[in-house]
């Protein structure tokens, strides 16, 4: 595996885009028996009330055609137990939706997950492995490999390949990391430069009047920026607006 990983690292380093990197990883994962791949990246994986946020970056290989729409538009991502587990897991894990598939999922699946479970069973992609990668400053990336069937033998094969698949996932993340910020502008909230500037000063404890003096703007203009930011963030007041802006890393620019 070391020789294959070295070759993969070389290919990933020469790939100029995330799509090219995914093609290289898909070829390596296929040798382990994974026909379909899902990669996602979120600079902030949870919203301010603890619900999963649809990832900013998603790349798919060999998944059904409606996957992107279901997971990213129709809300399947929020009720996907694999993704829910990935947020809190620090280790790669094997999973299965087979009734007798004894994995970590069996302890958490309930009726809420029925649409995802039924879809993957029908698609014969009900077994796989997921590697969560928790990043500096709170970001989360995951690489999931799905097997074409979900028999007990497939589950056992997935378990045996988990370590090698984890190496592939980390190799992809290392190569992809410099490319992600260009693609991962927050899909949750977009603040203007002035709104961010005003919130930064508010985070330092300045009043609207003091911020107006700092920026050489009128009090009315600063108040307008702060009020606009509050509405975008769904905040009741400026303190809550600052807290939510910090949570979503909107003041890091």
SSE-based structural type: alpha+beta
What is the 3D shape?
elongated
Summed up, the domain count is 2
Compute the CA-based radius of gyration.
Answer: 21 Å
* Uncertain ranges: none
What is the second-level CATH architecture of the largest domain? 2-Layer Sandwich
Note the gap between the termini. 40 Å
Largest sheet: 5 strands, antiparallel
Instruction: Work out the number of β strands.
Output: 5
Number of helices: 10
Order of helices and strands: HHEEHHEHEEHHHHH
Helix content: 40-55%
Major beta sheet, strand line-up: 2-1-5-4-3
CATH superfamily of the largest domain: Transcription factor LuxR-like, autoinducer-binding domain
What name does the CATH topology of the largest domain carry?
Answer: Beta-Lactamase
Q: Give the overall average pLDDT.
A: 91
Strand content is 5-15%
- Highest-level CATH class of the largest domain: Alpha Beta
Write up what this structure looks like:
Keywords: DNA-binding, Transcription, Transcription regulation. It comes from Pseudomonas muyukensis. Residues 184-249 form the HTH luxR-type domain. InterPro entries: TF_LuxR_autoind-bd_dom (IPR005143), Tscrpt_reg_LuxR_C (IPR000792). This is LuxR family transcriptional regulator. It is built from 10 helices and 5 strands; from the N terminus they run H-H-E-E-H-H-E-H-E-E-H-H-H-H-H. The mean pLDDT is 91. It has 2 domains: 2-183, Beta-Lactamase (2-Layer Sandwich); 193-247, Winged helix-like DNA-binding domain superfamily/Winged helix DNA-binding domain (Arc Repressor Mutant, subunit A), CATH 1.10.10. The protein has a 5-stranded antiparallel sheet, with helices on both faces. The longest helix is centred in the middle third of the chain and has 32 residues, at 152-183. It starts with a helix and ends in a 6-residue tail after the last helix. With 253 residues, it is an alpha+beta fold. Strand 4 (127-134) and strand 5 form a beta hairpin.
